[in-house]
Design goal:
The protein has 254 residues and is of the alpha/beta class. A 7-stranded parallel beta sheet has the order 3-2-1-4-5-6-7, with helices on both faces. Strand 4, helix 4 and strand 5 form a beta-alpha-beta unit. It is globular, with a radius of gyration of 17 Å.
């Protein structure tokens, strides 16, 4: 394996990694040598990902965690430090979107849930791992954002607002912690075939509109996001920080 992508000896936490993009990232980080903490609200599905990692010679453990709970986030970090003594890579992937439709019709409860889960939880979790990263000489934080953070939307506008905030969070961590050799970046996927985005890609009208607007003429797959996460976590991304990498089949360019 090229040393550019070698994560041997590194410890990575991936939230929302029992399925979809998070699962693909967890599998690929492990494939490149990282010890991976697989985390989501459902322990059983996390254990299935752990079993898959271990079946190919990787190392991982599962930790149940609801990102809306600060206590559970801290328990996630504490469990990782207790088992492996470090967090070298943090991938904040878990997110929610309880509202689909015009923002005018959104209930306050839904707005708060999106902002608290997609922004505040990432802020909490980053702050929980940053000091020990600094003590150990560096680390990589990767926030899974979205192209909706760069565009307006008729149906998921507030979700897009939360994802734009994640981009700002990455930039701020870059500025505040760069002198400690800590890098922070966002990945902004376009439409990816995940359970989370099912309401979009299963809608024939939306699917056709998206595919027509993407130069590659298709939507993405979860594993096509994982490669960027490996790049940002590994030495290959050692001079990349404060950035948002768009992976959308050319949609933004078109």
């Amino acid at each position: 394996m090229s040393s550019l992508f070698d994560l041997s000896g590194k410890v990575a936490i991936v939230t929302g990694s029992s399925r979809g993009i998070g699962r693909a990232i967890a599998l690929r980080l492990a494939e490149h040598g990282a010890k991976v903490v697989v985390s989501s609200r459902t322990l059983e599905t996390c254990e299935q990902v752990v079993a898959q990692i271990k079946s190919t010679g990787g190392d991982a453990f599962a930790q149940e965690c609801n990102i809306a709970s600060k206590q559970e986030l801290q328990s996630l970090v504490n469990a990782t430090l207790a088992k492996w003594g470090a967090v070298d890579v943090l991938v904040c992937n878990a997110a929610v979107n309880p509202h689909f439709g015009p923002s005018l019709n959104m209930e306050d409860e839904a707005f708060d849930k999106i902002m608290n889960s997609n922004v505040r939880s990432n802020f909490w979790l980053c702050n929980m791992v940053l000091p020990q990263m600094a003590e150990r000489g560096g680390g990589s934080i990767i926030l899974i954002s979205s192209v909706t953070g760069l565009q307006g939307s008729q149906s998921i506008g507030v979700y897009g607002m939360s994802k734009a905030a994640d981009m700002a969070l990455a930039r701020n961590i870059c500025v505040e912690w760069g002198k400690k050799n800590i890098r922070a970046n966002c990945i902004a996927p376009g439409l990816i075939r995940t359970e989370f985005a099912r309401a979009l890609w299963e809608n024939p009208k939306i699917y056709e509109q998206v595919v027509k607007s993407y130069p590659l003429r298709r939507i993405g797959e979860p594993d096509e996001i994982a490669g960027a996460a490996v790049f940002l976590a590994a030495p290959s991304g050692s001079f990349v920080t404060g950035q948002t990498i768009v992976i959308d089949g050319g949609g933004m360019a078109a």
